[in-house]
Amino acid sequence: MRHEDDQFLEEQLRVITIEVALRAGLLKKCPLHEELFDAQKYDAEAAYKLANYLITNNDPLVEPFNKDRRRLTDIIKNLCYEFSACCPLCEKNSLA
Question: What Rg value do the Cα atoms of the chain yield, rounded?
Fold first, then answer.
């Protein structure tokens, strides 16, 4: 059961981090396909600043991180490599 709880928490933290990245403009949602992409091309500085601001101000959004800034910024960093620089469906359609 503990493993499932850990997996649930990790997924919850990832979803929160995506929301922080969207608010900071690091990630964008394609208006046509609703796919996420890294609009800042790995420039996560604004997302790091927002994450730190939210933790400093005890924002309920980041409460599950228990004030662990490092964990939040590490997940932001990983997001940069997870998403392409443009909508993958738009890119696929432009190659067809």
Answer: 15
Other CB atoms within a 10 A radius of the CB of residue 89 amount to 14
**Burial tier of 31 (Cβ tally within 10 Å: 0-12, 13-18, 19+):** exposed
Q: Which two tokens stand for residue 3?
A: 């493993």
The single-letter code of the amino acid at 59 is D
Distances (CA, A) of 6 to 3, 17, 26, 56: 5, 16, 26, 25
The Cβ of residue 50 has, within 10 Å, a number of other Cβ atoms equal to 21
Profile the chain (96 residues) by mean pLDDT over runs of 10 residues: 82 96 94 90 90 97 96 92 89 72
Residue 72 DSSP SS3: helix
Q: CB count, 10 Å around CB of 33? A: 14
